[in-house]
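Re: that backbone. Tokens:
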């Protein structure tokens, strides 16, 4: 079975190997247990949703030849940077008027 990574993660059971979005899982030379596959394809993981999805055999073979399109592109998760705007105090406003 071939899987594609939906969300970047570091696999604690694969010596902390980092898998990026769109990577093949498992990497060549590593065999994941059926329990690990179940965890990563389900919602009982750190993310609470599937991290990898199965790629049909015929798709896995042809995807190496075809460029990715928006239809078959895996979900990309982007963390938003949160910045707080400093609040103006009344003292600052009074000083600004002077």
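Recovered sequence:
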């Amino acid at each position: 079975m071939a899987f594609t990574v939906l969300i970047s993660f570091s696999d604690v059971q694969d010596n902390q190997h980092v898998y990026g979005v769109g990577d093949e899982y498992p990497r060549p030379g590593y065999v994941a247990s059926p329990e690990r596959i179940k965890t990563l394809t389900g919602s009982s993981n750190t993310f609470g949703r599937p991290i990898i999805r199965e790629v049909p055999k015929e798709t896995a073979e042809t995807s190496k030849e075809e460029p990715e399109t928006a239809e078959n592109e895996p979900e990309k998760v982007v963390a938003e940077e949160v910045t707080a705007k400093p609040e103006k105090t009344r003292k600052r406003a009074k000083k600004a008027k002077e």
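The beta strands are 2-5, 9-11, 17-19, 24-25, 52-55. The chain has three helices and five strands.
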